[in-house]
Amino acid sequence: MDPDTTRTVGLFAGALSLLVMLWFISQRAMKNRMKMLEDNAPKIAGDDTLEGGARNPQQFDEPDDDALDEMAKLLGDEEDSSVEA
What we know:
Blueprint lengths: L2 H37 L25 H11 L1 H8 L1
């Protein structure tokens, strides 16, 4: 084969692979940018999902005596009951 032909084919293959790589990188960058914009978009009430939660939510159905005493202190019921007596 002629050295000029080999060089021309090599340059053509290199240029073609460069164009394919640039196209792939630009497509990947646009996809990443769209995902980032979607992930960081403002949340609309009700559309976002909340993660986590209580492990045993039934424990909050009936308050225990300590919780009732604390609620009474916060509401000031203890002061009212001593005034009435």
